[in-house]
Every structure is written in structure tokens, then in C-alpha cells.
User: Which sequence fits this backbone?
């Protein structure tokens, strides 16, 4: 009798457990039934509208945790809130959630002017943008999160910019732009002048006055964007030749050293021609190393002779601007 009771209890425990396991596995494999997902979606839409109503008169940031709206896609959330007057500003991934950030459009407030769309703000930024000293402009796309990459590319090309790549350290959010015809320096081109752009430097009266003095003395305007682009072009020209000589020097040095020590460790003068042939090859390789190093130094000197004066003048103006700004802050 006890065994029958135990079997019945075990059966009543086992069957619901198997049924529950089947439902869990089935939901995982085939997904939640559509009717349930639709109910969740409607409930989350109502929750979203209720949350934005609570912030209607704040006119500030509105952050929602995307985890609480799993049945709604990002584009759908942006579209729904956009119709309710919220502008998407980007994402904020934190330990406590994945937040979508919105800003209330002030158009509904009395006496307020409606905020420009993301496309208009992007166009306005690119119209006034200026390349840095290396010929690039870094565009932070996180503030235009509701625009696709195709939209950004079209807006950039419409005002004369071309997308040349992305900043590897920005997780794809920072685009690198350049003007057609401008020379762009990359990491392989080595160091170049650093600091503010010619337009920014010219806004400082002290720097502008010093630039005029240099122009009168040398006949070249150190704050001319055309001259700066020419300096980048020549720098890139000489950098390419310098890098080639460095690569050759590395090749000759590595293999020449390996052959030399291999010869001295494996052969002796008594081995005859094999020893002297290998030793001669090592000497030739190390001689070519010296030639490559000499040519690399020669390339550097030629680069210095051609654009050194311009780079010195630009560096001087940058230093002058930094000192002037530091002096102004301390006053």
C-alpha cells in the first residue's frame, strides 16, 4: 500500500515537472506564442507612453531602460517617442541597464522654437566644420543615433565631405572625414605638427600679428590652409621613402645578424669556402643595413630642408596661442 502511495505521489510530481520542462524548452525553441508577445507589446507601449507623460513638462533628458521594453525594437521606440515630441540622442550602456536617451523637443512649450532635426543639426555641423592639422575631421555620430550610416554619408557628401574611415578607439561612433583634394595623414606617416587649426589660430590677435611678421620675413603665410595642405603632401612623400628605408634596414639587420652568428657558430675557417661564403653574405647584408640607415637619415634631412621652416613657424604659433590662453586664464 505504501509503495502504491509513493508511486502515485512520484507520478503526480513527475508529470507536472515534465510538462513544465516541455513548455520551457518549447518556448525557448519556438519562441513565446504570438498572442502573448502581442499583449506584452501593447502593455509596453502603454508603459512607454505613460513614462513620457510623466516627463512632459520637464524639457530635459528622458532615459528609458531598453530591457523593460524587450518586445519593442529600437526603431519603433524612436518612432513612437518622436511622434510624441522626443528626439533621440544616443545610447548609454551601464552595468544597471541599457538606456536609450531622448531630449524633449521644446516646440510644444509656449514661446519656444522647435528643435532642429538630427539631419539638420548634422548639416549645420558639417557646414562649419574644419579639418584638423592632419587633414581630417572627427564626427561623433553618437549624437545622431537616429540617422543611419547611409544618411550620414549622404549629408556629408552634400556639403563637400567624404568619409575616409572610423576611429578604431571609438567602437565605430567616430567617423573620419576629409575634404576632396586635401591630403590626409595616417599613422604610418609619422608625427606632424599638432595643435589648433589655422582658423582657430588666426582668431588670436597676438598669433595673427606674429603670423604677419613671419609672412613678411619668409614670404609664406604659416596660417594658410593651402600651405598646410602642401606641407602634409610633402611630409607624406618623405614619410613613404623614410618608411621604406627603415623596413629595408630592419630586413638587412635581422637576416645579416642571423647569418653572421650562424656562420660563426656553425662553421670554422678550416671548413673552407662554406665559411667564407656565408661570412661574405653576412658582411654584405650588414653593409646594406648601413646603406639603408644612411639613406633614412638623408631622407629626414631633405624633408627638414623642404618643410622644416613652415613646420617650425606653425609650431611657434601654436605655442604662442597656448601661452596666450594660459596667461588669459590666470588674469
Assistant:
Amino acid at each position: 500500500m505504501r509503495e502504491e502511495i509513493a508511486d502515485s505521489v512520484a507520478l503526480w510530481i513527475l508529470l507536472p515537472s515534465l510538462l513544465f520542462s516541455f513548455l520551457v524548452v518549447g518556448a525557448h525553441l519556438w519562441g513565446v506564442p504570438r498572442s502573448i508577445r502581442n499583449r506584452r507589446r501593447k502593455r509596453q507601449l502603454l508603459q512607454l507612453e505613460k513614462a513620457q507623460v510623466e516627463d512632459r513638462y520637464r524639457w530635459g533628458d528622458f532615459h528609458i531602460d531598453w530591457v523593460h521594453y524587450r518586445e519593442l525594437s529600437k526603431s519603433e521606440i524612436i518612432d513612437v517617442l518622436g511622434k510624441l515630441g522626443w528626439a533621440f540622442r544616443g545610447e548609454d550602456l551601464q552595468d544597471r541597464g541599457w538606456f536609450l536617451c531622448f531630449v524633449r523637443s521644446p516646440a510644444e512649450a509656449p514661446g519656444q522654437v522647435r528643435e532642429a532635426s538630427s539631419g539638420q543639426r548634422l548639416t549645420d555641423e558639417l557646414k562649419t566644420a574644419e579639418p584638423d592639422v592632419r587633414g581630417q575631421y572627427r564626427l561623433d555620430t553618437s549624437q545622431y543615433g537616429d540617422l543611419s550610416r547611409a544618411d550620414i554619408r549622404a549629408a556629408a557628401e552634400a556639403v563637400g565631405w567624404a568619409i575616409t574611415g572610423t576611429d578604431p578607439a571609438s567602437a565605430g561612433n567616430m567617423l573620419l572625414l576629409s575634404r576632396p583634394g586635401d591630403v590626409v595623414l595616417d599613422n604610418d606617416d609619422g608625427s606632424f605638427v599638432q595643435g589648433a587649426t589655422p582658423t582657430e589660430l588666426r582668431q588670436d590677435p597676438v598669433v595673427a600679428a606674429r603670423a604677419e611678421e613671419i609672412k613678411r620675413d619668409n614670404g609664406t603665410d604659416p596660417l594658410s590652409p593651402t600651405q598646410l595642405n602642401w606641407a602634409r603632401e610633402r611630409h607624406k612623400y618623405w614619410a613613404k621613402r623614410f618608411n621604406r628605408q627603415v623596413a629595408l634596414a630592419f630586413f638587412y639587420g635581422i637576416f645579416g645578424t642571423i647569418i653572421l652568428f650562424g656562420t660563426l657558430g656553425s662553421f670554422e675557417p678550416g671548413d673552407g669556402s662554406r665559411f667564407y661564403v656565408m661570412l661574405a653574405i653576412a658582411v654584405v647584408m650588414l653593409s646594406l643595413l648601413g646603406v639603408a640607415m644612411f639613406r633614412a637619415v638623408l631622407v629626414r634631412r631633405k624633408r627638414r630642408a623642404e618643410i622644416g621652416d613652415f613646420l617650425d613657424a606653425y609650431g611657434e604659433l601654436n605655442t604662442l596661442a597656448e601661452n596666450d590662453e594660459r596667461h588669459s586664464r590666470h588674469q
Summary: The first strand starts at residue 61 and ends at 65.
